[in-house]
Amino acid sequence: MSRPQGGRIQVPDDLREILLEFTISYLLEQPGDVINYAVEFFTRLQNNRTTTIVRGPSAGTPDESIISDEEEPPVARFNNRRKSVFAETYDPEEDDSDEGAPAVFPKSDAQRARLAEAVRGILLFRSLDAQQMQQVLDAMFEKRSEPGEYVIRQGDDGDNFYVIENGVFDVLVTGDDGVEKVVHTYEGSGSFGELALMYNMPRAASVRAQSPGALWAMDRHTFRRILLKSAFKKRKLYEELLDKVPMLKALQSYERANLADALLPRTLIDGELIIRQGDTADGMYFVEDGSISIRIARDDGNEHEIKRLGKGDYFGELALVTHKPRAASAYAIGPTKVAFLDVETFERLLGPCMEIMKRNIDDYEEQLVKLFGDKSNLTDVR
User: Which parts form a coiled-coil structure per UniProt (predicted)?
Assistant: First the structure.
């Protein structure tokens, strides 16, 4: 391939759009294995390239007429869709506004509870942590409707996602014969239009108020900003944490970035048990903030602390290296935050560090010998 004058390569718009869609889809769904997810995503995209999905008046529910099937990859849901909003530029690194906080629209506790319940089962919201969900609920604004008023119209560009507070709303689909038919009716609750949070695409159905009603709405720009900026901040936070772990010096910078994306946050209370002696290892932990007490039970049943860990330390990895049950327990000391790495991701991402972790086994055994005076029954201290 010839290089343009000046040494710069222009990224084609189609390539940019597809990669952006894949990236956001990955961030939304947060699968365990990025490689397997990528293979599945692009295979489905290829298989559905020429598929046209027809939405007709036979749709039995609004999920079939307004909301696309979850099994289909986002880029393949509509063959004739408009340009993805992922191509609308938003760079979280350049957004240095205070927390990127959207406007907060007041709601009662009861309203917030109903909103949270309404969006809980929607795919796009499943990956949000508690803080992100609160930002989403804060950012939803109220919209009133009158009988006969169209909230959305089939064929219009999607802009907002809606949650019904009260009122009756009909879902209508216009068929090839030009006749508009009611395919579903919401009575006092429900949600619709979440594809607008991902795509600037024509609506697949209309929604019309049958009675006076109230809805809560959220625009796609606010949703993307909350999601992308939170994901960006999480990566930066974990990259800084991982940079302080000596064991990870063997990783390349891109490998540490992949590791940061794979970590899952957990908040612990004082005295909370994190891993139990004798359990099967399911992953390892990095201490984000607070303290961890590593304890081992003696024959008399009493637990003895063998180590105290702090910010930047890690634990639980040796049981993964030795493939043996946990040989010690770990407890949170005071309010503590940790980041969890599951066993499959551990094996995939931390191969270059395996020898370093194996060498650590000898150090832990020496500590136990000093404590108990016997090495005969020792395996992995964590």
Answer: none
Report the run of H or E that residue 57 belongs to, with start and end.
none
Residue 317 counted as an annotated binding residue:
yes
CB-based contact 207:161 (threshold 8 Å): no
pLDDT digits (tens, 9 = 90+) for 75-127: 333 333 334 444 455 556 666 555 555 678 988 898 888 888 888 777 667 66
**Burial letters for 244-279: b for 16+ Cβ neighbours within 10 Å, e otherwise?**
ebebbeebeeebbebbbbbbeeeebeeeeebbebee
Q: What 3-state DSSP class applies to 112?
A: helix
Extract the tokens encoding 122.
Answer: 């929607």
DSSP 256-317: HHHHHHH-EEEEE-TT-EEE-TTSPP-EEEEEEEEEEEEEEE-TTS-EEEEEEE-TT-EESH
Q: Full-prediction pTM beyond 0.90?
A: no
* Residue 152: count of CB within 10 angstroms of its CB: 22
239 is in an annotated binding site: no
**Region class of 283: left (phi > 0), else alpha (psi between -120 and 50), else beta:** left
Q: Are strands 150-152 and 180-187 parallel, antiparallel or unpaired?
A: unpaired
C-alpha–C-alpha distance, residues 219 and 192, integer Å: 13
Q: Which pLDDT tens digit goes with each residue over 124-154?
A: 676 677 777 888 899 999 999 999 999 999 9
Q: Is 203 annotated as ligand-binding?
A: yes
Distance, in Å, from the CA atom of 238 to the CA atom of 234, rounded to the nearest integer, reads 6
- Alpha helices, H only, the chain: 13-29, 34-47, 62-65, 109-119, 123-126, 130-139, 220-243, 253-262, 317-322, 343-349, 354-372
Annotated binding residue at 70? no
* C-beta atoms surrounding 300 within 10 Å: 6
